[in-house]
Design goal:
The chain has 247 residues and is mainly α. Helix content is 68%, strand content 6%. The two termini are 17 Å apart.
Amino acid sequence: MRISETVKHLIIINVLMFIGTLFIGNGVFYDWFALYFPKNEAFKPWQIITHMFMHGGGYLQHLSVTHLLFNMFALWMFGTPVENALGSKRFLFIYISAGLGAVALQLGYYYFRYIPMEQEAMALGFTQDQIIEVFKEGKAFRAIGQEFNEIYFASMVGASGCIMGVLAAFGMMNPNAELMMIFLPIPIKAKYFIPGIIILDLISGITGQSFFSPSNTAYMAHVGGAITGFIIMWYWKKNQFNQNRWY
């Protein structure tokens, strides 16, 4: 299957960002372009977009390459037929919108976990300006220190949220296409496979139990991207497209 133009350009951008991470220095590059929790002083507004083109880095270099390769393979496999069917503009709209949906749900979930910690600290007399420093020291709140660190110091990178939106679009356009996982070579129709993946990500995000992905995966970002892709395609199918064009 020949790669489509927008997919090709997205892959090139992701690869260039990965090269930048390796050669400019993952610390500097991450501080600029990875997405941090908004209360972290490292957060910058442009990271909402730039993190979508970052992959791995740091001390787990071999995992970084794997992260990039798997995502770019999925982008080629599912993005090309979606772009060929919808055109470059609509495909890019789904891709970026799914990335933004992924950010919204992941950060929303982080705030859902963070706000009770903040309220607990304020109830004990700490001011808004003091709370972050108290949490960092971990002296008064040892019970929630680990959860705070997971949220406050985490950096979010990767195109997975965008790709989950593309995958959802592919599934709606090709519900009977048979898909398989590399480590589970059993063909499953897209209309069952894709919702199953989303449900597993949701369970992982809530419980912390990893099924297929590394434990530091932003599972809610996967869910947010997929939901966004589904909503866009549902709206387009209902309001803009002749159904015959989907098959």
